[in-house]
Design brief:
The structure holds two protein chains of two kinds. Chain A is mainly alpha-helical. Helices cover 71% and strands 4% of the residues of chain A. The N and C termini of chain A lie far apart (56 Å). The chains are: A mainly alpha, B alpha/beta.
Chain lengths: 306, 385
């Protein structure tokens, strides 16, 4: 097998597109883990709800007799989706996780799985099992550059995810709120003594994580415009692996992990001539990585304090 | 102690209820023809399960309106027991088991997808209960089994039809196949297509797979594009094909695209829209060339549900008709007698064409090729076996 440069570039571009979506969802896993050392398994389903919300928002805005410019429709849908998923994330934390904060960790994890199942089946019961089509906001335009084919949607996904990631990174590293988040993840017992409201910061973390998952849902719907209530499960698992690979709790690690997983998904069928091994490759990679570097690529080991 | 006494009474009552239930079932089975429906009501192809359920309910309503099914010298009403198999192999087997042991059905219609029909067929065969799958085209469903039938053609015929069509009508020398490796139906038909296409002098230049539930096919499609085929064969279900076609076109693949009977749902058109224009696929029946009998069915279905029946609905209706005919001919609610009658059915005129059974569970019947034209399925050609 020989691979011309254009072909490799094409595969890389595909991997970047998929990796961006994984990275956006992995961010939410990582942020919540960082602050609560809890894995929010409902996160993949929040992404699914986000995709459905984006579909409705787009349908509504396209249906208005105003002839809005497409960029406005896109931004309107994005804003709506991110707001509602943020509210959803905060409500889930408030109703399902906060009462269990003093309970053993495993209770919260089981609850998270339960919340995920609830979201899936609630969507199934209210919207129905039929796959839904996302209306196209932008007419697809194809470009070809040196044998590499790409579309305006792909460019949009890459750009919007990049902007969101940079914004989030700035928030966590450069603002007072971000400092409080990092402080809580460092030590949850001491930080309240400094006048920081832990509940407030945790709610904010859920809001941001869920809003980014919602944005991921919208972008995903643009690229793969068929939605079903179970779409969050597999993506959620892959994003979770991405977060662990990058070093769970680390924002930049989650982004890196997302792109690594995107590359695994795209390159496995190419190199092994069958997609069957894709999940085995991803999970084997996770196992091997955890043996040699239990904290993930960019994670820092925690020191047990006495 | 008092507590325990109450508990004992409760246990005795439970046992009594169970015994009464069992006796009740036994006594009732003569007064109604108990049929099970094992359908994909939820999961990834809910349209299939919905059509199957609706067609059986229509048939039962029609027969019961006339006083019931003629068995011997009596008219006995039909009673349906509908179970959801969630489009999962294990749930399909569990649904079959439940229909047999709890509802004591005479026969089961469904499951439809081969991945569900194959495990359910094993359960039915072991219990000696007749199962007719309306839509499962994989040979393994009926292979080596006595009580399992189907109302559709099988995949090697379908693979042959599409391979021949690609070679002769589309004049293709090279073909590519993208199929779901985790689903028996998709995998089976992909392999038959490859076998017949190459036997016919063509060359399959890319034979690549994905896994059920995937949404991103860009990696596989890039590989396919690099192999530059003249035709792309997508033997996949209607909920995945639109994404595949859309992504193929976005990658700049311009070759003809063909498919199999799993395309035959109106959902394909609502999800896929313009990208599928001009594509061909093989299927079981074409509403545009319907016989008077088929016209009657289409009208009744439209009147009851307000939409056109798809191929699953038509095949389910045929499966039900085949079964009811066999019960009447056998003259008794006896599984073995009905089974023997079914295996000898000759020239049965159903909604989807003539069917003949030659002692086994697979009918000999023709296929049609449809084309997507102006957002609708249009009849293109018939292929005799």
């Amino acid at each position: 097998m020989s691979f011309p440069v254009a072909l490799v570039l094409q595969y890389l571009l595909n991997a970047l597109q998929l990796g961006s979506v994984y990275a956006l969802i992995a961010l939410g896993y990582s942020m919540v883990y960082g602050i609560l050392t809890m894995i929010n398994f409902a996160h993949g389903d929040i992404f699914m709800v986000g995709a459905y919300l984006a579909m409705w928002a787009t349908l509504f805005l396209l249906g208005l007799p105003l002839n809005l410019p497409t960029i406005f429709i896109f931004l309107g849908s994005l804003l709506f989706t991110m707001t509602v998923t943020a509210v959803l994330g905060v409500s889930i934390e408030r109703l399902a996780y906060r009462p269990l904060r003093q309970a053993p960790k495993v209770s919260a994890v089981i609850t998270a799985l339960g919340v995920g199942l609830f979201l899936e089946n609630f969507t199934l019961a209210t919207i129905g099992p039929e796959p839904r089509q996302v209306p196209a906001i932008f007419p697809v335009q194809q470009y070809s550059w040196g044998g590499v084919a790409f579309t305006n949607i792909q460019v949009l996904i890459l750009v919007v995810s990049f902007i969101l990631m940079v914004l989030l990174d700035t928030l966590v590293r450069r603002t007072l709120t971000g400092m409080a988040m990092r402080a809580i993840s460092y030590n949850r017992v001491i930080v309240p003594l400094m006048g920081v409201s832990v509940d407030h910061i945790i709610s904010l973390t859920f809001a941001i994580g869920s809003a980014i998952a919602g944005a991921g849902g919208l972008l995903y719907g643009l690229a793969y415009p068929v939605l079903d209530p179970y779409m969050g499960i597999r993506i959620g698992w892959w994003a979770f692996i991405a977060a662990v690979v990058g070093g769970i709790g680390n924002i930049r690690g989650a982004v890196l992990g997302g792109y690594v997983l995107g590359a695994v998904e795209i390159f496995t069928p190419v190199l092994l001539a069958s997609s069957t091994y894709r999940d085995s490759v991803a999970f084997s990679m996770l196992l091997i990585l955890l043996i040699f570097k239990p904290t993930g690529l960019l994670g820092r080991p925690t020191v047990e304090k006495v | 102690m008092r507590q325990r006494g109450i508990w004992q009474v409760f246990r005795v009552l439970c046992c009594l209820a169970l015994v009464c239930g069992a006796v009740g079932c036994g006594a009732k089975s003569e007064q109604e023809v108990r049929l099970g429906v094992n359908a994909e009501l939820t999961g990834s192809k809910p349209t299939v399960g919905d059509s199957c359920k609706k067609a059986m309910e229509l048939l039962a309503a029609q027969i019961n309106q006339q006083g019931g099914l003629q068995v011997g010298d009596k008219q006995i009403p039909l009673k349906l027991f509908i179970e959801d198999n969630e489009d999962k192999a294990e749930s399909a087997a569990a649904a079959a088991q439940k229909l047999i042991s709890q509802n004591n059905v005479l026969a089961i219609i469904g499951p439809n997808a081969s991945g569900n029909a194959i495990p359910a067929a094993r359960i039915c065969e072991d219990s000696g209960v007749i199962m007719i799958s309306p839509w499962s085209t994989n040979p393994k469903t009926t292979e080596g089994k006595k009580f399992i039938f189907r109302a559709c053609f099988i995949d090697d015929f379908q693979g042959q039809v599409m391979a021949k069509f690609a070679r002769q009508h589309l004049k293709a020398d090279t073909a590519a196949v993208l199929y779901d490796v985790a689903s028996e139906y998709n995998k089976g038909i992909a392999e038959f297509f490859q076998q017949f296409f190459e036997a016919d002098g063509g060359k399959v230049v890319a034979f690549v797979s994905y896994t059920t539930g995937d949404k991103d096919f860009s990696s596989q499609l890039t590989t396919i594009k690099a192999a530059a085929p003249q035709v792309l064969f997508l033997p996949n279900y209607y909920n995945e094909v639109p994404l595949q076609v859309k992504q193929a076109r976005n990658q700049g693949l311009t070759c003809a695209i063909i498919g199999s009977d799993s395309w035959g749902s109106q959902e394909l058109l609502t999800l896929g829209g313009a990208d599928l224009e001009g594509s061909f696929f093989s299927t079981h029946y074409a509403p545009d060339i319907a016989t008077p009998k088929a016209q009657g069915f289409i009208k009744a279905y439209e009147a009851k549900y307000g939409k056109k029946p798809d191929d699953v609905a038509a095949l389910t209706y045929d499966a039900g008709l085949l079964l009811c005919n066999a019960i009447t001919q056998a003259g008794a609610l006896d599984r073995t007698k009905v089974r023997d009658t079914l295996a000898q059915v000759k020239e049965f005129a159903g909604v989807t064409g003539k069917m003949t059974f030659r002692g086994g569970g697979d009918p000999v019947k023709s296929a049609v090729i449809l084309q997507v034209q102006n957002g609708q399925f249009k009849y293109f050609a018939s292929v005799q076996p």
